[in-house]
Write a structure and sequence with these properties.
This is NAD(P)-dependent dehydrogenase, short-chain alcohol dehydrogenase family. Pfam families: adh_short_C2 (PF13561). Belongs to the short-chain dehydrogenases/reductases (SDR) family. It comes from Cnuella takakiae. Helix 1 (24-35) packs across helix 7, helix 2 runs parallel beside helix 3 and helix 5 crosses helix 6 (209-219). Helices cover 43% and strands 14% of the residues. The protein has 264 residues and is of the alpha/beta class. The chain has a 7-stranded parallel beta sheet, with helices on both faces. It has helices spanning 24-35, 65-79, 104-132, 154-174, 192-205, 209-219, 231-241; strands at residues 15-19, 39-44, 56-59, 84-87, 135-140, 179-186, 253-256. It is globular. Strand 5 (135-140), helix 4 (154-174) and strand 6 (179-186) form a beta-alpha-beta unit.
């Protein structure tokens, strides 16, 4: 007899944490999990502009060890454990110019945010998941792990490549103990931040935002789908991966890039 799956309320009773969950893809993921019935905790350095009172917000800088410790302590104190961990936080603030302009501080900041923050959170929550024999961890990486933009985001790309490797190895260790670990590697996502960036490029180049968008897609080597992803499209993939419908999926990287990467 086939097991029926229902998308409505399928995460009822689950506690989910989404890092970087106040905007962009993180917000879309948090909203998607809430719609599926999960109790959602979000964390970021600053509170969301439009606060969702049904989501538990924790202010923390996950680029620092004390920030991740704060989040782990507050979640465990409030809920006693965690069922779903979405390590979505990531980003790059390094200047363009390639290797020559990068400092040790640039490398350290990228590694702290994009690799060590998720590793610390995993370490904080995994003992509770393992003790119950269940849990799902998603690491949000990037296609830059395979297609780095060396002129502008070299440390970010290196950190994301390390995250992909770490995620696979973690899966090998904890999947036999009941915890699924997966990686999602998005391409370009048209968040509000990306929209503002397109506006700045258009203003600087005295062109339109549509032309600015096309120029960025060309810089990425082209997006066969013809446009960046929407945050909700990435969130829908995450919603499936953490659900009972994906119960046999672990140790795998899922690329959602509209066909950007030419080979796998």
């Amino acid at each position: 007899m086939e097991t029926p799956f229902y998308s409505n309320n399928e995460l009822s009773g689950k506690i989910a944490l989404v890092t970087g969950g106040t905007r962009g893809a993180g917000k879309a993921i948090a909203d998607r999990l809430q719609q599926a019935g999960a109790k959602v905790v979000i964390t970021a350095r600053n509170a969301p502009e439009n606060k969702n009172t049904e989501q538990h917000f924790i202010a923390a800088d996950l680029g620092k060890a004390e920030g991740t410790a704060k989040v782990v302590q507050e979640v465990l104190a409030a809920y006693g454990g965690l069922d779903i961990l979405i390590n979505n936080l990531g980003g790059s603030d390094t200047a363009g110019g390639g290797f020559a302009v990068l400092t040790d501080a640039d490398w350290e900041a990228s590694l702290q945010t994009n690799l060590l923050a998720p590793a610390r959170l995993d370490k904080g929550f995994l003992p509770h998941m393992i003790s119950r024999g269940t849990g799902v961890i998603i690491h949000i990486a990037s296609i830059q792990a395979r297609l780095p933009l060396f002129d502008s985001t070299l440390p970010y790309a290196a950190a994301k490549a390390a995250l992909v490797n770490y995620s696979k190895n973690l899966s090998n260790e904890v999947t036999p103990k009941g915890v699924r670990v997966l990686t999602v590697s998005p391409g370009w996502i048209m968040t509000s931040g990306s929209e503002k960036m397109m506006q700045r490029i258009a203003e600087t180049g005295n062109t339109t935002t549509e032309e600015a968008t096309r120029s960025v897609m060309q810089a990425l080597g082209g997006i066969p789908f013809g446009r960046p992803a929407q945050p909700a499209e990435v969130a829908e993939l995450i919603g499936f991966l953490v659900s009972p419908r994906a119960s046999y999926l672990t140790g795998t990287e899922f690329v959602i890039d509209g066909g950007t990467i030419p080979t796998t």
